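Project standup — Tuesday

K.O.: blocked on the structure for the chain from last sprint. Re-posting the sequence here as requested.
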Amino acid sequence: MKFFKNKANNLNLILFSCLSTILIFIYAPIFIESILYKQLDFQWSPSKLVFEGTNHYEYMLNGKREKIIGSQFGEYLHGLYVLLYPFTLLSWENAKIAWFLFNFILIIYIPFLLCKKFSINETATLIIIFFFITSNVTKAHMVIGQQSVLILFFLCLPFVSNSRISYILSGISYLKYSIGYILFFNFLAEKKLQKILYSFIIPILGLIFYCLITNTNVIRGSIQPLLLAYENHLIDSSGASIMPKNVFILSIFEFLNYKYKSLIAIFLSLLINFYFVYKIRSLTDNLQRLSCLLISVLVFFPHYPHNYILVLPLLIYSIKNFDSKFSKIYFFVSIYFLYFFRAVEIYIPSFLNKLFWTDFNFLISYLNSILLLIVLLMNIFQYKSEDK
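H.V.: unblocked you, prediction finished:
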């Protein structure tokens, strides 16, 4: 037994050494590109404005962008800009380095944490971490300096630890409400009022501190993130209502002619999403539940490609249960979305557009949403054939 244990340890050490070497070659140029040219989504400049006493929501709603860097659109909830305070003490160049390193730690720690919680062996854990870190969506996330990895970490906490502090900290996921809303839906479907109250502590404190720092009325300030998000994504320069650029399951409203079609589409999509969450609550496997919740976010709410890091729990679940024929499907679907879906959305429509002289961009993106919806349905309505 000792011989086989040592042999397994040696294998893991060799695997770890090989993967570490590969990661160095992959992430060295990403680090250089990120620090020198990118990190344009990292919300440093809005947070900097906040700690100069300026309400960045009002600043941007008034059409000002002079002090805003890149695509730092500033539409997250107040608490995020308060939490980013330590980075505002650094110059923009040094803050980018610190944010990159912080995110790099998270993209290693999150899969490790989930694998440890759900009893994944060491070899499989190393492989999962490698898949996640080297995926195109994770690399894109690192280059542009997004916040989604941070949000994913706190959203996973209630599924890792059943403690009061986990529920309180999980409220940080609400700060990026386009993802974090699913945790609120989950607590609501479970009828866990205490969890909801705990999870609201940080967003509420964030709002209060933000308003104190910027001398903003709390009532007025509470709705400003949504007003800014609406202006950034759901109206054009003439003030007309437009659909989000990123395809989701009700993007078919694009072809309807309603004044507020984007808001109607998102509202209806969220209602359907809650119905699915209500079904998901009956799943007994916490890892499967987490996977389904995050898949539903990608199906029912518009997202940029970097947010497809949310398929990580599905990848872990598929490897843990790889003997199941459905898990094999989940594995290939998760690999597809981590590595290939963006290339498919770019190159296949480009080829078909030239071949048929029509626009296939929407269709291909919509088919990706349908694929995730099918995976979600397969998980919720487990086929009984495997149990027979």
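K.O.: great, moving the ticket to review. The first helix runs from residue 2 to 37. Residues 1-8, 383-388 have pLDDT under 50 and may be disordered.
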